[in-house]
Amino acid sequence: MAVFTPLSDAQVATFLEKFDVGNFVSLKGVAAGTENSTFFVTTDRRELVLTLFEQGEHAELPFFVELLDYLDEHRLPVPGTVHDRDGISLHSLAHKPALLFPRLPGRHPEAPNLSQCQALGDTLGRMHVVSKRFPGHRPNPRDLHWLRVMHHKVLTYLSPDDQMLMKDEVDDFESAFAQHDELPQGALHGDLFRDNTLFEGDTLGGIIDFYNGCTGDLLFDLAIVINDWASNQDGSLSSERYEAILSAYQARRALTADEQALWPTMLRMTALRYWLSRLLVVYVDPPAHDLTPHDPERFRTILKTRIAKGALPLPKVSS
């Protein structure tokens, strides 16, 4: 159960009095999640999500609030924060930072179909067009600089072949990016896996959990999506899902020449990003709570497949 700070009905009922959301009816802890405590809250007027922030840099929470509110104002399917009667959304509850959100409709797609992939690609394209104008700034905490610094921490736990693989990849990434100008920048979700989306049938009801949100290369966000949404079990790319996502995305925002040139490299880099982050959780910085870490092997497999087979051709953009 991923509720690390239990709350009573009375605590939440009192908390809700600050907001114009109706009277408290019920509270339910949410089992999903590895970092924060999340609850479904029902009032006599609406369904809400209450999140207590257990870890991370609390000073960065205003960035996430501003990003969610900005995207919500631009009619993206994200949970803009609920503000109290004084216009404030970030509060404290049980001595933890707390945010209240509308509960968005839908379920996580375990095996997304082509219509769902198309909807995701279209929405991510719209989001990136809008996010290029987002005024906030938070450097990408999992970019190439992070890979360069952090990969040394796990080398001792790897086989000699995997040590060489990781070192060579970081060197290759640095060389490849040095040959190109800065890529298009904007606000990113930073972790847009299937379990951070909600679908009702083929309709995308919401994109959630922006707590890896940052600003940086838009292509980084897109590569994370493809590696999760379009990868088969053996790490290879599904041409149908790949085409559905990228065609819909590029109808909203066509990739630049530099982005196209770096696309295979970015797919490898984001695969290494998750292989490394999962290795760090297993060997170096285990979770504070009794939760099972994600298996690093999944993204090692994806990385090795991207190296062996490269990327599929990018869909052609209609002029």
From TrEMBL:
It catalyses: L-homoserine + ATP = O-phospho-L-homoserine + ADP + H(+). Residues 27-254 form the Aminoglycoside phosphotransferase domain. Keywords: Amino-acid biosynthesis, ATP-binding, Kinase, Nucleotide-binding, Threonine biosynthesis, Transferase. SUPFAM superfamilies: Protein kinase-like (PK-like). Its EC number is 2.7.1.39. Pfam families: APH. Pathway: Amino-acid biosynthesis; L-threonine biosynthesis; L-threonine from L-aspartate: step 4/5. It is an enzyme of class 2 (transferase). InterPro entries: Aminoglycoside_PTrfase (IPR002575), Homoserine_kinase_II (IPR005280), Kinase-like_dom_sf (IPR011009), Pseudomonas-type_ThrB (IPR050249). One of its GO terms (molecular function) is ATP binding. It comes from the Bacteria. GO terms for biological process: threonine biosynthetic process. The keyword Amino-acid biosynthesis applies. Belongs to the pseudomonas-type ThrB family. PANTHER family: AMINOGLYCOSIDE PHOSPHOTRANSFERASE DOMAIN-CONTAINING PROTEIN (PTHR21064:SF6), AMINOGLYCOSIDE PHOSPHOTRANSFERASE DOMAIN-CONTAINING PROTEIN-RELATED (PTHR21064). This is Homoserine kinase. It comes from Vreelandella arcis. The lineage of its organism: Bacteria, Pseudomonadati, Pseudomonadota, Gammaproteobacteria, Oceanospirillales.
